[in-house]
Amino acid sequence: MSGARVALVTGGGNGLGAVIIRHLHAAGYRVAAADLDECAARAVAGSLDAAGGTAIGLALDVRSRADFEAALGALVERWGGVQVLVNNAARTVARPVMEITAGEFDDVVAVNLRGTFFGCQVFGAHFRDRGHGRIINMASLAGQNGGTATGAHYAASKGAIMTLTKVFARDLGPSGVTVNAIAPGPLDLPMVHRTVPAARLAELKAAIPVGDIGDPAFVASLVVQLASPEAAFTTGATWDVNGGLFMR
Question: Is residue 248 part of a domain?
Fold first, then answer.
């Protein structure tokens, strides 16, 4: 494993982040599950490699640039560097737009948008200085259609992530760094089941052209593909995985 690539996934302690961590590890990556809940991050890493040779859990609050810098430093010290960042951490609140408070708006945007910005800045600089890197940002269908089961603050932050992806892709492209986004629709994840009441789930599926919600494993496999060295000619793109709910 001396030549193995290294990837860090924010929000890696549960949900889609944990699925992505497992797929990257299965593809031969050394992985760091980074999460505000350090215990959850360590549990995911431990389930892959109890000894910590190929998987570790880190505490990381994406609202803090210093936390990103500390995580980067830890990976450089442990494995000599890192080649892939997946900005996956997110906060979702389903709230009618006229009921969103200033505090809640700021909190959601700080996690989803500012967290992605800091990650791209800190890891993007590291990748740029070494002439190679892959950044994958998790956007959302909600950022494309305004959201139907999520709050306006969540939808707005996810739309802005797609714009940030283009900005960083343009800035870092000449240095061998690609930056892409994935915009999933509803996936078979605990967060979706918490957000969409069981009584509405059948209606939701019926409204999706393919007739079902998505498989998180496919999104994770797309992350693995975009993270690969061979993905050098794909940058600034948003990859839609939404069952046909949004077509362009």
Answer: no
Q: Are the CB atoms for 65 and 122 separated by under 8 Å?
A: yes
pLDDT at 2 over 50: no
Catalytically annotated residues: 154
Pairwise CA distance, residues 12 & 30, whole Å: 14
Give the chain's domain count.
1
Is 206 exposed, middle or buried, given 0-12, 13-18 or 19+ CB atoms closer than 10 A?
A: exposed
Convert the pLDDT of each residue in 133-148 to its tens digit: 999 999 999 999 998 7
Task: Please state, in angstroms and rounded to a whole number, the distance separating the CA atoms of residues 175 and 191.
Answer: 36
Domain residues for the domain of 187 are 6-240
Cβ–Cβ < 8 Å for 72, 122: yes
